[in-house]
Amino acid sequence: xxxxxxxxxxxxxxxxxxxxxxxxxxxxxxxxxxxxxxxxxxxxxxxxxxxxxxxxxxxxxxxxxxxxxxxxxxxxxxxxxxxxxxxxxxxxxxxxxxxxxxxxxxxxxxxxxxxxxxxxxxxxxxxxxxxxxxxxxxxxxxxxxxxxxxxxxxxxxxxxxxxxxxxxxxxxxxxxxxxxxxxxxx
Amino acid sequence: xxxxxxxxxxxxxxxxxxxxxxxxxxxxxxxxxxxxxxxxxxxxxxxxxxxxxxxxxxxxxxxxxxxxxxxxxxxxxxxxxxxxxxxxxxxxxxxxxxxxxxxxxxxxxxxxxxxxxxxxxxxxxxxxxxxxxxxxxxxxxxxxxxxxxxxxxxxxxxxxxxxxxxxxxxxxxxxxxxxxx
Lengths: 186, 181
Prior knowledge:
The structure holds 2 protein chains of 2 kinds. Chain A contains 1 helix and 14 strands. Chain A is mainly β. Chain A has a single domain, classed as Jelly Rolls (Sandwich), CATH 2.60.120.40. In chain A, strands 3, 4, 6, 9, 12 and 14 form a 6-stranded antiparallel sheet that branches. In chain A, strands 5, 7, 8, 10, 11 and 13 form a 6-stranded antiparallel sheet that branches. Chain A is elongated. The two termini of chain A are 32 Å apart. By secondary structure, chain B is mainly β. Chain B has a single domain, classed as Jelly Rolls (Sandwich), CATH 2.60.120. Chain B is built from 1 helix and 13 strands. The longest helix of chain B is centred in the N-terminal third of the chain and has 8 residues. The radius of gyration of chain B is 20 Å and the shape is elongated. The N terminus of chain B is likely disordered. At the A-B interface, β1, α1, β9, β12 and β14 of A face β1, β2, α1, β8 and β10 of B.
């Protein structure tokens, strides 16, 4: 690693302390480098075919994907709605900012070689432009595709993953994941 | 947000220093050096011998050929062929990992092409499974994830195709970026 020769400290360690000034209290304080770097909060949620159970998808109908609560959240910034479809930016901590969201979803094979599937990212119920369609999809196996978007979020905004499959018959969501990364303040 | 949002009497400058307490000792470090120390980067390119042949419908670990960047000593291809990323006590943390693979074209253009990223050989972090683009054009697929890596955790990339016979990976790319400690 290209650590500068002008520095007298060893490569950074998560237990190192950084001196900061709390302007609201006019005090100098220390924070750990780990806490500082984790301020760029990460949350990761996901579901598998068993947790929660696989989700049915009707032909040509948009539906919001259900996820588990985030399994990693370095800043305790996120909540998930009671129906498990909305990731919500909580208002008890100032986490407004720019986020990158990414999601991928695995669709079962529906037996048609001409089907298509679509994954959308949505903010407060509206499409964000983060959408991807796989067409034609795999005949004889699952198709897994993704969507990514940069979103500016403020308190209580929520993000959903919406999908649709166009196979001509009912299908199943076999798994998927979603993660978000705070890129910086608003 | 501009720099004016800070309660600072100084203009932005790359020579600014931060006060660090390390092991009971007070040290100083430039902002840019601290940022570089936290945000480690790794990139790999190519596959072994320019191509790597995948047998039909078999997940195969990608063997990377060239290490283009590694500023955290997180990967050593000569010691651990096939590992895209491995972390230790000083490089553990939250990592963004990304890989794309280029599949050679095949007449079996309605059959699957797949890429996936695994942690410690078993945990699926990301996967993209789609049909080939066409019978005369290569197919590129990319997967990505954010993952928390503990010391000695490692990342591998695997490819899979079901064309009915052997098919080459004609190129590939991997990069990773530590986002937080």
